[in-house]
Amino acid sequence: MDIGKRIGSWPLLRQLTGRDLLGRGEAVQSPRSRDLTPRTVDADDVVSSVCPFCAVGCAQKVFVKDGQVTQIEGDPASPISRGRLCPKGSASKQLVTSPSRVTTVRYRRPHATEWEDLDLDTAMDMIADRVIKTRKEFWEWEADGNRTRRTLGIASLGGATLDNEENYLMKKLYTAMGAIQIENQARI
Amino acid sequence: MAEAHPVGFQWVMEAKKRGATVIHVDPRFTRTSAVADVHVPIRAGSDIAFLGALVNHVLSNDLDFREYVVAYTNAANVITESYEDTEDLDGLFSGFDPETGIYDPVTWRYDPPEEMNAEERERAGELEQEERESTAGDHQQSHQAARSESHGSGGAPVSWKGRRDETLQHPRCVFQILKRHFARYTPEMVEEVCGIKPDQFREVAEALTSNSGRDRTTAFCYAVGWAHHSVGAQMIRTASILQLLLGNIGRPGGGIMALRGHASIQGSTDIPTLFNILPGYLPMPHADQHASLDEWVRGDEGKAGFWGNVRSYAVSLLKAYWGDAATADNDFCYDYLPRVTGDHSTYTTVKGMIEGSCKGYFLVGENPAVGSANGKMQRLGMANLDWLVVRDLQMIESATFWKDGPEIETGELVTEDIGTEVFFLPAASHVEKAGSFTQTQRMLQWRDKAVDPPGDCRSELDFYYELGQRIRDKLAGSTDEMDRPLLDLAWDYPAHDGEVDGQAVLREINGTGPDGAALSAYTELKPDGSTSCGCWIYCGVYADEVNQARRRKPHWEQDHVASEWGWVWPANRRILYNRASAAPDGTPWSERKKYVWWDAEQGKWVGSDVPDFVADRAPDHVPEDGAKGPDAIGGQDPFVMQTDGKAWLFAPLGLADGPMPAHYEPPESPVHNPLYGQQNNPARRKLDHPSNPINPSWSEVFPYVFTTYRLTEHHTAGAMSRTLPYLTELQPEPFCEVSPRLAAERGLEHGGWATIVTARTAIEARVLVTERLRSLRLGEQFVEQVGLPYHWGGNGISRGDSANDLVNVTMDPNVYIQDKVGTCDIRPGRRPRGRDLTAYVEDYRRRAGVDMEHPEEGGAE
Ligand code: SF4
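Predict the joint structure of the above. Result:
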């Protein structure tokens, strides 16, 4: 950079000679910040979503590039949130990208002191076997002379970030199993 | 609200900008108080006394909206002669059985109409019989097993509209009963119970009443500060009574807003994963009462209002579950439904786990080791399972309790002795699957899928579909009758790229007609098996074969109701019971509060919202004698889900702890109930187990009140916030808030450590000495409160002890939700470690005289 340019780029000089007299805008911008572009600009896709934390239900726009979430922002079109997100909604990208997120199945054998790896297919098969066994073991046709057609051996507790469609399938399957101790954060 | 529902709070600020007065009632001074016009510090758990005094203020100064009250509520109904009030029985209502701790509501009912038809005469005979049996000790238990909750979209069915005295003068009419019942709820009593000064009380009462009436409406917002009590349902009832007396229900700017805490907690109630209800608040069949489909629907069928069509909703659900296998000949597979016999709620189930009667457990996006009351009970239960499946994004405390839970540290549990087989299956995040959430205003909003889930992560939709497939495959060919419901289940969902199509599930929830096309309204449902519908109140969300929940028309292209954003149940109706926004004659109450009104020319209800009424029912319509279901709704009966069309100031049926609210102290309290001899809710549901000892009330060993709450930067049990670097940076450590007076009394140092103890356990936290928590003066007594955010546990980036380990399990008898208020001691310094901790707590129990023979009682009676 030649000396003239360098002096010309001095923020105080730019402030005094330019339009930004208060020195809060272009006068104090470095070349780096001037050239910065938001992550959202070069997204391949912008997907409509909803914040998964509280029940206000703020609308989100999810920016995706190369199959990765690059940014999540509030959607100004929403009559509920008008584009705002609180700290939780603003941090929701890290739900996806969190370094401590677990992405493989973990298995703890009875009485073991450590986790083991297990492939998903085997895990699913083992869980199905356990459901069938426990269901049968605790099956009850009657209680106090009344028909009950149920099993008290299996319980479930769901969070309230489940989708309606997920809750629907859960209750449907559990009911067909005869499992009744099916509960949710909604009671907690 | 500014703390836990920050973005929703922008509307409160908009209202304030336009002149609204914002009143914040909370034990703590928060970000909400900071911008409110008035902050009213209240003792945690004393809200019925405060709200009850507002009711009394309205009644004794004739400030009610009389025309609304007479026409739209049951104020005029005459209650049976055998009813006795808390005024007569020192804090009990009639019908209480001290042995079982259960109320029989038979004496709370409406007097029969003066002129009865044949059906009503028959019913009157039955009721007399019930009353004779009841007084002979054979009490009814009709709304046990959390049956009250099945009225989540309407009241319990009553036998008749009953005798009414619209002058409100009859001594046994609801209006007069209310007046007598609430007479002792005075401003002076409020000071003694809640610690609120009479001047401040009057300021609130004045603001509230002057802002209600024809031209103005007032709204209440609440969250679990009301719900998490052994009298939680009745706290909310008190607000309902107040709002009805002021004419603030069914009108724009009015209502009671339940600020629910999680993205789809409303959805999880509507399409429940709850033990006591099926989709759309249909009750789970009870083994005693519902041996057949006919018996299951009998309570509501044919009664006035939309619940009168219950058979159509029930049969359509059975068709959605069992498809072609469900026929008229087999009662539409009604027998395939398992039956409840009592309380199968989460806390009672956990007790069953400890005792070995429940052996397999699925935790799906839930972390009870931190998020449920009495964490120790939760962990002891999980340690006694055969198998546990945990599905989450992060390695939560409920998945690792066998390795590093607090009981491993104290030696109460030993890893090698724990036989529980644990499967941790990673879950998909909200952007890695498509689906709908139902937010707090009953609005369904669809999310599209943005990216594929990584590794083994899967959505719950895929997990449960796949699990169902595998179980059905393994059982294929079984001739065992117990396997029929699984084998006959309609379990066929289209998949794209190996993932179940959520829209197909939403379409099944919406329902289809005889031609297989999506239905557009629940009024189209039939009782003959020709329609199928997975949740009747959601019928219409897929109208015209369009996913209505996915609508996103920007608000600037719509009016203020914005009815083309998402879809609200029922029928995309934004304000419930909005018929009440017009006067009995169908004209708006005022120009300013115009919302839905009768257009005589067009012969229908019109306005800015979908009218919550039979669209063409004229205001002067009187139903014919013997009319059933929606046909029996009169033109001036806005509460169309109630069998009498009226809002209930007095609940003649449906509540487990009285027809009206009464103030009782929390199960653990330093205060003697000044209102009645009855200290606690007599019908509260206790959980009797040695791991759940209750602190004796009025104990000098546990002299302080504690309550738990959330922080803006964290989310419930922390799995979704303590694991995120951004949020943990904002709020890195657990702490307790105490007043300067309490800090001086116990020698607590700002920024130092404190140990907080109850009969369950002791935890430690950093001390925040702040004026935000006031010392409350109740008569001669000072009450100090310790505030505890409850988000922490042993895992994640930011770690600490769980406040919920301190909380006892004593439940509201209507909904089986725990009381988050308790008593404690607080001392400077860190808590003892290892075995010393159990000895420390044991010493407290001994000194406080906790009766370990009856640990659930607390020695308050
Ligand atoms: S952004 Fe904040 S206020 Fe909005 S839904 Fe999410 S958690 Fe709630």
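Residues 45-97 of chain A form a domain with the Phosphorylase Kinase; domain 1 fold (CATH 3.30.200.210).
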